[in-house]
Amino acid sequence: MASPAAEPLRLLLVSDHRVAGDALSEYLSRHGFEVVARVSSAAEAAAVVRQTRIDVALVDGDLRSGWRSVVNAVADPLEHGRIAVLSSYWDQQERLDARRCGVGATLLKRLSGSSLVGQLRALAA
User: Fold this and answer.
1) CATH class of 9-124
2) How far is CA 108 from the centre of its chain?
3) What is the pLDDT of residue 77?
């Protein structure tokens, strides 16, 4: 008897860059994630997290309103550490600040796709 397929991990994607968001959404959907919502603001992210079960959130670190606004908006409803921020640059102090805010992973945009998938799965576990 075949074992049932694992349910996809439910992901919230926060990005205000349409093309990058489309590409990430498509890639993650093909690799075991259900992109439950794709939003571009902290308020929208908070509304989704309050209304829907989310396993992990991926936030664009270059969001115009700032990744911290999203983390602050969703950190209480979303279990601590289930937020990843994807940015083009992190210094050591920023990584520490992000961890203190409840970010589970600080990822670099040059990260390979398979590494991104692995990091998000680890956060959702």
Assistant:
1) alpha beta
2) 13
3) 77
